[in-house]
Amino acid sequence: MIKENNPNYKGLWAKYKKYEIVKIDNEYYIRPDKKADYEIYDIFDKEKELLVDFLLIGMEAMNYADINDANCDLMSTEKKYQDMILDFVNKYGMFGEFTYRLINSHIVSSGKALTQGYSNIDEMSASTYIKPYFIGNDDIQRIDFDHGLNPDILKYVYGNNNPNGDLAHRFDKGEDFSIVFSKCYTEKIANILVMSRALYRIFNSVENNNWTENEDKKAIYQKYANMFNPNNVAFSFNFENDKTYLNWNFNSLFQAIELILAFNETNERKEVKMCKHCLKPFIAKNLKSDYDTASCRNVANVYRNRAKNK
Ligand SMILES: [Zn+2]
Description:
12 strands, 3-stranded mixed sheet, 45% helix, alpha+beta, globular
C-alpha cells in the first residue's frame, strides 16, 4: 500500500533467523536463539503481510482479554498465543519496545531514560530502564549503566560474549539499537499482546466507522480511532542509483506497523481490510471484496436474505 504508491520508500529492520520463548520468574519472554545468524530486510517488501499478521494477534488478544491488561499476562502463559508471537518474530524480528517507549536517545552515554508518562515526562536511570530488557542474563543485570560506557557493557551487551558486533556494525542505527539487536535482548510476551490488541482496536474502529451509517455509532468509533497516537516518525532522504529514496527511520517495528496501518486506512485503494462477517484482517485481492473467504461471504448472504424475507 505504501510501496506501490511510492516505490522509493525504504525502511530497514534487522532480524535473527530464529528466536525462542523463555520462562523466567513465571513470565514469558522472547529472545534470539544464541546461534542464529541475522538478516537485514526492507519492511516495505512485506508490509501487508506484516500488518495482517500483527492485527491477527491483536484480534485474538481482544477476544481473549477485552480491555484489561492483566488478562494479557494470563494469555501469555498459553502455548497457542506464545506460538503466534514466535511465528511472527521468526518472520519479522522483534518489536523494538525498548526504543519505541523512549523519547530520548543515547541512553547509555547519557545515563538516563525519558519516557512519556500520562501527562508528564518520566525520567529514570539508564540501569532501571535497560535491565528489564535483559531478563535472565545475570552478567548484564550486574552492570552499571548509569555512568556512561564501561568495559562490562562492551563485553556483555555489545561485545565478544554477545556476538551481535557484526550486526551493529553493518546496520548502524546508533547506540540504542545495539541494545535492541543484542542477542541477549528480551521482550515480554504480555506487552506484545497489549500492543497488538490496542492496534487491532484502532483498526476495528476505523473499519467500523467506514461501514456504519448510524451517526451515533460513527461518533463512538471515531472517538476510539482518535486514541491512535503514534510516536514521532522521523525520516531522511537517501540518494542511491540516481534515485531519491525516503528512508523511514523507525524507532521500532511497532512504530513501522503503526505507520503502515495509518497509510492503509487513509488509502482510497485500501488493501488490508476487516472481514465484515468474522472481523479478521485480510489482504483483499479484489479491492471491492468485504469478506476474507467465500464461506464468510455465503454466511453473510444467508443472513441478509433471511432478514429481507422477514
Ligand atoms: Zn471472514
